[in-house]
Design brief:
This protein is α+β, with helices and mostly antiparallel strands. The chain has helices at about 10-20, 25-35, 50-55, 90-95, 105-110, 130-140, 150-165, 180-185, 215-235, 255-265, 295-300, 335-345, 400-405, 420-425, and strands at about 40-45, 65, 70-75, 95-100, 120-125, 145-150, 170-175, 190-195, 235-245, 270, 290-295, 305-310, 330, 355-360, 365-370, 380-385, 385-390, 395, 415, 440-445, 450-455, 460. The strands form 4 sheets. Strands 5, 6, 7, 8, 9, 10, 11, 12 and 16 form a 9-stranded mixed sheet that branches. A 5-stranded antiparallel sheet has the order 13-14-15-17-18. The protein has a 4-stranded antiparallel sheet with strand order 2-3-1-4, covered by helices on one side. The two termini are about 30 Å apart.
Length: about 475
Amino acid sequence: MAQTSAYLPDEFLAQMREVMPDHLSFDDFIAACQRPLRRSIRVNTLKISVADFLALVAPYGWQLTPIPWCAEGFWIERDDEDALPLGSTAEHLSGMFYIQEASSMLPVAALFADGESPQRVMDVAAAPGSKTTQIAARMGNRGAILANEFSASRVKVLHANISRCGISNVALTHFDGRVFGQALPEMFDAVLLDAPCSGEGVVRKDAGALKNWSVASNLEIAATQRELIDSAFHTLRPGGVLVYSTCTLNRDENEAICHWLQAQYPDAVEFLSLDTLFDGASDALTAEGFLHVFPQIYDCEGFFVARIRKTAAIPALPAPGYKVGNFPFAPLKAREAAQVVAAAAAVGLQWGDELHVWQRDKELWLFPAQIEALIGKVRFSRLGIRLAETHNKGYRWQHEAVIALAGHDNPLAFPLTLAEAEEWYRGRDIYPQAAPARDDVLVTFQGQPLGLAKKVGSRIKNSYPRELVRDGRLFAGLV
């Protein structure tokens, strides 16, 4: 691989020399920082099993190397990367995999370690969605995830990734993460705080990441991290697990934050060791049982992960001083909900008891049942999935609902050829050799739903959302 020229300030290097364990080589650290980052992907098991995915992409000649801490994760090498971006492959467009840096798969692995099976999870700083979608896959789309993002511009990206991956159990909020301790005390079984940080671990991806680096700036960031972890800890029920992670390397933003939390609540904070998370975890293990991942250890981004159990209740924060406002949705009555369920099944859309039908005017939505306890306590940017719009002839089913609810190898599917699927993603109508038998056409490719369209004569009218339409070359390796 070609060398990069990452900017590494002298004061940063001095600090790293001080904190690096004796068994690691500082020269190896410098060399790793200057090497380009290996690309990695995570198979979305909500869409396809790992075994089926590997069989599907086997003809492409992709070199896939398993990532030790994530059974669905692989480092990937491709010969045709320049000709066709990974994000334009058929499997990515239909949500079968997520492009995710290997070390960023660690926090979710820690969240579900030792057989933990949380039913209600919060992801405090969720965009662009790699960890939220990983959590949803580990939960099998059951339970509920509150995915929060402070940056308004990134909420849209977060929703797009959730939708592409076929996720139905997420509620989105757009707040400063410091509000949740007051707003939602003891509401979650597990919380992931992948905290905003100085980003010292990402120089392999961004050579200029440390251009504005300073110790003073790091300490400023650490002050915010203390407020965020305190808030997150309050949202956790006693017995629940908090995972605190960053993509930085200094102790001020990592170990010191966890020790500060323990000092605040000495009778309620237990550090859980990550020594058995995967084979080789001991190479990055700290004395407390945290993972402090320097980039040379696993040839990935620098990262920090701590797993913390809340062993007892802690004093509540004062109640928030704001009003949430009226919630504009109402649950559908049982008979009406049954009609919606039957109509959806007729076009190939199904869901289980963990999702409930709610209505606002002519809109029908599916809300995860586990999130209903939060209604009235916090304002949502988006909740669950938009299922349909009602009109005098029935229902107009929404794209995100089709992607989430049609499943794999749907018996009502109308499979598209490779050429037809490309046309679909380009926003063009399809002219199949044989017209579909049904007026509502669930179009698929590789067994995955691409959308629900209308048959107009011998033509399938394209319903792919305009904002998702692609151009350029698509579908690497397919012939």
